[in-house]
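Q: What would this chain look like folded?
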Amino acid sequence: MDDIDTRAQESGAGFPRLLTIREVADILRIHPRTAYRLVKDGHVAAIRVGTQWRVTEEALHDYVAKGWRHWKPEPARARTRQPRQCKLPLDDTDTEESL
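A: My prediction, written as structure tokens:
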């Protein structure tokens, strides 16, 4: 592995650092299952290596930056108290008079 890193540095081709799903979950402080869902749903760009997913640091930075750009605080809601509506019982005389 060190041989590959040394050759990549000498040739100038920098390989991006690849993160596992567990590392992504630790960085975002979420459950690994949630991180996996983000990858499967296409929210975080990833590549599949064999049977496992890998996420580049740049893809993770892009996901976080995109989240900050689209997030807007919700305006404070006005809390108005609505009066209760109660149904009053009708007398038999009221229904007969209206007929």
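The chain has a mean pLDDT of 81.
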